[in-house]
Each structure stands twice: as structure tokens, then as C-alpha cells.
Design brief:
Alpha-Beta Plaits; 2 domains; five-stranded antiparallel sheet; alpha+beta; 174 residues
Length: 174
């Protein structure tokens, strides 16, 4: 993980935690204590409702991330921490995009949506809302393609990720 030259890299960190109040605050505090910005954060229950999975993406120096991971592992509510960036992983994000649309532009917007496999989730007199799932590049690309029509609103989730292949992030002993 550490490359020794201080280069900034994207890191995708996945954390299994006890599903308790205050856990997210302590984890985000680990980042802010080191003046380290979180690019994306997603939290959700796992198959076990007593355990949540947190996925954090951040750009930064390998050495700082290594220290943050060591500190995270010391927190009482943290069960397991892995840096997915060290291996092959898949990730996805969800975005809702509301764009200006009238009778003239609606067809063109629908054609672009089809290319990106977006779903139309709402149509109003002067707007359309689309739902898109994909990696960060796909999400960024469709938002850029919608700009000429007039993007009215964007709501993005944090990225979620998991290892490719057989490797899993599970509870110890599971």
C-alpha cells in the first residue's frame, strides 16, 4: 500500500462495524482529526442487522491512509477494516438527475438515457428525472451529457464497493 513517495491516490476503504449510535461519528472523526477529506461515504446494514458496512472513498497519501486504517482497527465498534484499493474490486453509485425537458428536448434526453441505461422515474411539464447506476465515470459522463439541457438537480449516493471474485468482507469466523 505505501509507495513511499507521498503521491495522492484514491483509496476505497470498507469497514464492518457494530450497528450502534455514534459509530459513524467516531469513524469520520478519525479522518477529520488528520485534516483528511472524505470524497464519498455510504452506510448500510449487512445481512446481519447488528452489523453495518461503511464504504469510504478518499484521495490522499498512502502513509496517512495506512495510519487511519490502523486507528480505525483500534475503535471498539469496528469489526473489520480493509482497503479495497489494494486488490481488484467493483463499485457502483446511484444518481438521480432532474433536467429541464419540454416536448422538443424530451426525445433527445430519452435517447441519451437509453445509451446510459438510465431509467426515467418522473416526467413533469418542464422536467424529467432519471435514475442511473454505474461507476463514477459513467455517472460523471451522463451528468455532463445532460448539462446542455439544463440540469436542475443532482442527488448522488456514496459509492459502494466489494472485492471481485471469491474474496469477501465478512465477519471473522463467518
Amino acid at each position: 500500500m505505501a509507495n513511499g513517495n507521498g503521491q495522492q491516490h484514491e483509496h476505497v476503504i470498507s469497514i464492518l462495524v457494530e450497528n450502534q449510535a455514534g459509530v459513524l461519528s467516531r469513524i469520520s472523526g478519525m479522518f477529520s482529526a488528520r485534516a483528511y477529506n472524505i470524497d464519498s461515504l455510504a452506510v448500510g446494514e449487512t445481512i446481519d442487522p447488528t452489523v453495518s458496512r461503511i464504504t469510504i472513498t478518499a484521495h490522499g497519501d498512502d502513509a496517512i491512509i495506512e495510519q487511519i486504517i490502523k486507528q480505525l482497527r483500534k475503535l471498539i465498534d469496528v469489526i473489520r477494516v480493509v482497503n479495497l484499493s489494494e486488490k481488484s474490486y467493483v463499485d457502483r453509485e446511484l444518481v438521480l438527475i432532474k433536467v429541464k425537458a419540454d416536448k422538443k428536448t424530451r426525445g433527445e434526453i430519452l435517447q441519451i438515457a437509453e445509451i446510459f441505461r438510465a431509467r426515467t422515474i418522473d416526467i413533469a411539464q418542464g422536467s424529467m428525472s432519471l435514475e442511473v447506476v454505474g461507476d463514477q465515470k459513467k455517472i460523471d459522463a451522463i451528468i455532463q451529457m445532460m448539462q446542455p439541457f439544463g440540469v436542475l438537480e443532482v442527488a448522488r449516493t456514496g459509492r459502494i464497493a466489494m472485492f471481485r471474485g471469491e474474496e469477501t468482507l465478512r465477519l471473522p469466523g463467518a
